[in-house]
Amino acid sequence: MHKQDASYLDVIHDRPGEWNPTDYAYHLTRRARGLPLWFSLSVYGVSAYSDAIERAIALAKQAAAEIRRRPYLELIREPNLGIVLFRRQGWAPGQYTQWADQLLHDQVAFIPPSAWEGETVARFAFLHPHTPMDLVLQILDRMA
Description:
The protein is an alpha+beta fold. The protein has helices spanning about 30-45, 45-70, 95-105, 135-140; strands at about 75, 85-90, 115, 120-125. A four-stranded antiparallel beta sheet has the order 1-2-4-3. Strand 1 (about 75) and strand 2 form a beta hairpin. The termini are far apart.
């Protein structure tokens, strides 16, 4: 069985021992995981990947600046690459789950709660180079 464990995947693996077809997917094996990256690099080129990474880093920095401007939010760490870790002051773990569930239900975003040193927190992981800052603002507004 191939399985990935991380706090942000807990919403996917929320019932221990339950069979999940993703645990048997070929993309979790070591050999096949490099193939999609190789294919994309050969089709789009290294510069397209470099540009996408730079855009994700820039968006993470913009999101961090916006989080700092909002008194009800706290930036936990300065962004590292495209990851932004933050908390909503006064929220319990269940409130992060409700927020994330509503975002998914409304088809706004998939942002499952994460964990930082045992505390439930929120986390942006910017991957798509065309993610608009307007979407980030909408997501943060839903935490007010």
